[in-house]
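Q: what does this look like with tryptophanyl-5'AMP bound?
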Amino acid sequence: MGKKVILSGIQATGDLTLGNYIGAMKNFVKMQDEYDCYYMIANLHALTVRRNPEELKQNALKVLASYIAAGIDPDKSTLFLQSQVHEHAELGWVLDCYTYMGELSRMTQFKDKSAKHADNINAGLFTYPSLMAGDILLYQADLVPTGEDQKQHVELTRDIAERFNNLYGDTFKIPEPYIPQIGARIMGLQDPKSKMSKSSTIPNDTILLIDTPEEIMKKLKKAVTDSEGIVRYDEENKPGISNLMEIYGIITNKTMDEIEKEFEGNGYGTFKTKVAETIIKELEPFHKKYDELMKNPQYLEEIYNKGAKKASEVASKTLKNVYEKIGIIK
Ligand code: TYM
């Protein structure tokens, strides 16, 4: 029996956040010894919002550099750009034809993004989940590690795969979402009722992985809390403090109980400073490696080309099988 397969990805949409790191990348790193991992950079998905072409290229490199700087070893995991493996776009189209409008209209991300970009509700934004289903199913992935917000898309992927298998016989492995119990939904520091996001327009709401220690300290000091003054986990009534506790807990491996005890009798000032220091320390090696990698685009190019070659071998087998089953001449 070979290793189980993992596929996941991050959109090439700019500098990554602490949410991406905790909700996704930290798990990508943990899983790479035990599983056969494919981690892609979703640059085709990024087209659903208008992008500057030069920035889009640069963003793909930034995500790749972030993967490696966070600890993903390109000798163990397969790292590649979605656009390099043409089977993604092809299977995405096929699966569009096996996905219902009703299913796509129920997707929370579609509803949120169309509200945010009311002037550009394009068809790609709508069919985004079938392209994502293609990403996953091409590699016959067993598990898909993501944050909470992508769970619905993975569940839809399962439905599409089952539908296809029922029609044409066993073709796709049915993937399982892998969502961490803590840290799957890191919230904004200013608006702790909304997910921390690259696209937040509220100042000091989002911690970027490339933020300097001073910026991280400043953002933490300004983070919204409550008037109780006690470090206590209560997501409903104390969303700001609970979010900071989750961030701290994930990095230090401490439970919410342990954190409550640790800060008993301390005010929010002490707690926030400690959380900031912990994030800064965690990201220190990331910063160093990231800066080195971004100075060496040639190395990054070698990595994604090597990864794409391996990914293409697997993806082309799946697509060939799909085409044969549905009667498409290649
Ligand atoms: P994206 O680029 O929005 O986010 C990348 C990963 O980071 C997680 N994440 C978070 N986790 C916790 N708290 C947050 N605040 C937070 N913000 C983001 C996301 O859940 C995700 O795991 N559609 C995907 C990219 C994609 C993909 C795929 C993922 C394309 N094809 C195939 C898995 C499998 C997306 O937009 O992620």
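The first strand starts at residue 5 and ends at 11. Residues 297-326 form the longest helix (30 residues).
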